[in-house]
Amino acid sequence: MTNTSWPIAHSVSRRCFLRGAGVSLALPWLESLPVRAADSGKRSSAPVRFACIYFSNGVEPVHWWARGNGASMEIGPGLKPLQPFREEIVFLRGLFNEQSVKNSSAHLGRMPNLLSGAWVSLDQNDIRVGKTMDQVLSQQIGRRTTVPSLALGIEPTELRLEDGLSMIYGSSISWASATKPATKEIYPARAFDLLVGDGKGRRLDRSILDQVLNDAQNLKNLVASSDRRKLDEYLESIRDIEKRIDRASRDERLEGWRPTLAQPNMPRPQDDLPQDVPEHMRLILDLIVLAFQMDKTRIATCMLNNDLSQMNFGFLDGVQGSLHLDLTHNGRDPKLEAMYLKTNQFHVQQFAYLLNRLKSIDEGGQSLLDNSLIMFCSNLFDGDKHQADEMPILLAGRGGGSLQTGRVLDYLDRGDENRRACSLYLSLMDRMGVSLPRFGDTDRRLADL
Questions:
Q1: Which residue range is the domain that position 152 belongs to?
Q2: In terms of DSSP bridges, do strands 393-396 and 89-93 run parallel, antiparallel, or are they unpaired?
Q3: Separation in Å, CA 288 to CA 20, 282, 302
Q4: What is the value of pTM for the model shown?
Q5: Cα dihedral 70→73→78→82 (10° resolution)
Q6: What average pLDDT does the segment 162-167 reach?
Q7: Are residues 223 and 296 in the same domain?
Q8: Residue 334: band (very low, low, confident or very high) from pLDDT cuts 50, 70, 90
């Protein structure tokens, strides 16, 4: 490798890069590096990031509730994994998308407009929804990062028909335009290559850290001891993800969701898709953390499962013999309801895992979670009833100080004009620096947020 000479200390930016052999790796915020003249006037604090984490088929309503504020907030059994994070969340009750309520398709007409509130075409020859708020953000501020936005998931995009409609509707919460969903990546290795490569998915050598090691050693001589530790932890976190991707690729377990074929019917390509559902989910969530920490993107969506999900939760203790779709459409069978609660808690546990990761990363006195807006939601409330007149939504993170957390906000009895999900989206986009006069079905911001 050709050793790159670093500039003298006063010309190095706190937001800098390690470069080598055509690779550029963005570093976390290093407080002790002086700001060069060219950076004066630029952002002096970490940017705000947005992520939407989606889970399918709603919740068990009797277990999904919260009351009170701060550390004294009480939460229902469905939210139990969030007990340590009550001061970090906002529980939102009663928000909805009007077009979802009006749509006669109980699932696919109420799913793809989750983040847009748009009308959904029921003509199988005319797939049409509306651009989603994450893609509006991507269009407006995505140029500030190598990757404008990330659309991630666990289950593949499906092309089959269900009830006469394309399962593209059930596989996509992020829509780049009214007729085109954003490309969803379910392979952790590909997402990783996108982040540490050239931003276009070009696969790079896995020993990226070896290529930039000399530059990293030189950089350590320019920063304080606290930043040296931060730099070491950051580089090690990337190495850990590389190792976990390799380990997941070699793992032949087939717990959870299974492909249509038990064995491939073609010559076996490199196996880089984890087959263990919890491992797959956490790899994807780790990549969101990495993307935000590297500032490779500030906008991400993640589908923990598709709508009408065929995911098998047999890997959970006490959950046997039923797919997720069957558990959520249970006809109030007590046995199935108990297993449904466990799947809700499992999804919330993944959200809690993400919050814990983000909270553990310091960005100059604030955590990465403090500088983020993380939304956790589903398109239906009571999955058994296909209830779309209310959506389960949680917010976490303080948006760089713009959001007060540790609260319960109830909009259920405020009238339809005051409880639109698109009002929430307008308010969140404002906090991301994108102000629109109207979005979806409203021109109002969400009161009290």
A1: 49-186+284-431
A2: antiparallel
A3: 24, 10, 9
A4: 0.84
A5: 30
A6: 88
A7: no
A8: confident
